[in-house]
């Protein structure tokens, strides 16, 4: 019998080298055997740095490093993590095992303005960035030849604090990119923006097999206003936003060329990068192609995903501003200003119509999709005038979003499913068929899991609220009272997402008296946890946060409502794993997809949602609950009142009674049956492996074949 290799102690310098190696590829952030090494390194600093490997390593004392370097068990864990990553990178993944792997020159360039990769890497604002991060991870897991392109924001999005009156305080830190494992490629590009050439450094991050390139203009060579182009995410007025989009689209394409990254397919994830195809057309012209052939080739090989079902959410610019900032960048196209503007107008020649980035993307992409079936329908109706076709014939399809399971599942839950149903998440494939067996899990063991996850969440929430109260200067008695908040045996509802007004975060407070009777029922109590950020300039969204802040302090809801500041991926993971019910009540059909509700079912959580976004595809009547929404034509007040009443009725008649209906052994068997049905159905379809494989089959491969004819 072969003897297991036992790793001897090593020098502390060698240990540091190996740890830096693990941290150099973001594979660590979705593989427990890697990130848990840094958690062990210094658990206190791991929490203090928001789970940053390199920052934790920097703060670990020399004595601690020397002690761990002489610990054979710890050294073995380090070597095991390195070996696991090496095996992952070397294996023939799903794509390499298929026939399409033989496509010559096939490579996808994926453009997005934000990427949510990990809580310690603050380069995301909300769902768009989280989706992009999950897309890259699944592309890596499946072996899709893909490269990501974006911007490197020195301030990230923003840190949210709430003042004593609940108003939002916006804080912008300066991040050290080196602590994120970003590598300087030592390449720069000169991007024409307005009347200047702006220099941008190209950083690289490895997301498993996928390189992500991020442009940074915070360089001494640039004018102060140009250095601010990559200062922060979604911070600026229209002119700054437009200039950022020139940098992303035009500059990102120039960066790929400078790096020798030859992509045969371009995927625009939302309209922010819509100028990228124009640079590709210019490159084709430089290779001797005719203008018509260049436009056709680029269009055939471009994929565009739209995420915005609200007309006001699509970037539009004053024609004069657009020409001033963009025309120099696309001068090689030889277009008149009028022709350039008409690329982004529904009505050609209409001088009063602003330039729309989404219209440009629609015009430059042969393959366009929404992010859920309902969103595809809404998009076809929204853009029928652009195509001059009836909505039913508009060529906009849909590929429903999904989540990267390994990123979002709690390790305790993963081990549970592995033991109970033989689930193997390390086996990377588009079809997650193992989830079908979730209904066979042992009810008692499942309820033990749910109880552990809920208990852990409650302790997390108490600690966070205590810190929030200390920061606001609350007295010691108020801080101490935090540890009486919530109850780990009580039905816990979660609501966490961007505080955009259409998501209606405070809708459940529509009738405070009725809600109080639900939450404070002594026999069947309920508690609610909120987290979310509004855009720094979204006064309506900030007012929603302030209303929830006030409700959390209302005596009618004492200890039953909690609002967590600074919503990020870590807070999100804690909530989706610990909450029993995930609440979603947007104004239908304004939620393009939404992905937060896809995550609780990984842990046996249940959705209570308006039939919007992905939920019409996911709900089957026995894996969650649907909130009936008001009919078309209702006023805003009538709609909110109707939807809130529907929510209350679901809670009163079905959700709460089912949770507290126990058998002789104390188990809520009917609740457990529904929760296991949620686990058996939602992750099966709504995962990013399925999503990325669907993009590959339906969009990427056809785009490659059409564009290279």
Structural notes for this entry:
By secondary structure, this protein is α/β, with parallel strands linked by helices. It has 3 domains: 12-90, no CATH class; 105-401 and 692-707, Rossmann fold (3-Layer(aba) Sandwich); 412-686, 3-Layer(aba) Sandwich (Rossmann fold). The protein is built from 27 helices and 19 strands. The strands form 4 sheets. It has a 9-stranded mixed sheet with strand order 5-6-7-2-1-8-9-12-13. It has a 6-stranded parallel sheet with strand order 16-15-14-17-18-19, with helices on both faces. Helix 11 (291-300) runs antiparallel to helix 27. The chain starts with 11 loop residues before the first helix and ends with a helix. The mean pLDDT is 95.
Any idea what the CATH architecture of the largest domain is?
Answer: 3-Layer(aba) Sandwich
- Helix/strand class: alpha/beta
Distance between the termini: 57 Å
- Average per-residue pLDDT, rounded, comes to 95
Anisotropy-based shape: globular
Helix content: 40-55%
Q: What is the rounded Rg?
A: 26 Å
Stated plainly, the CATH topology of the largest domain is called Rossmann fold
**Which residue ranges are poorly predicted, with pLDDT under 50 across at least 5 consecutive positions?**
none
Please supply descriptive tags for the structure shown above.
3 domains, 709 residues, 14% strand, 19 strands, Rossmann fold, globular, alpha/beta
Task: Give the gist of this structure.
This protein is α/β, with parallel strands linked by helices and 709 residues long.
Topology:
Layout: H1 12-23, H2 32-41, H3 43-48, H4 53-59, H5 62-69, H6 72-90, E1 108-111, H7 127-142, E2 146-151, E3 159-162, E4 168-171, E5 183-193, E6 196-207, E7 210-216, H8 224-227, H9 238-259, E8 265-269, H10 276-286, H11 291-300, E9 302-305, E10 316-317, H12 319-326, H13 337-342, E11 355-356, H14 357-364, E12 367-370, H15 373-382, H16 384-387, E13 396-398, H17 405-408, H18 411-421, H19 443-471, H20 476-481, E14 491-496, H21 512-519, E15 526-531, H22 539-553, E16 561-564, H23 569-578, E17 581-584, E18 606-610, H24 615-618, E19 624-627, H25 636-660, H26 669-685, H27 688-707
Helix pairs in contact: 1-5, 1-6, 7-27, 9-10, 9-12, 10-11, 11-27, 19-23
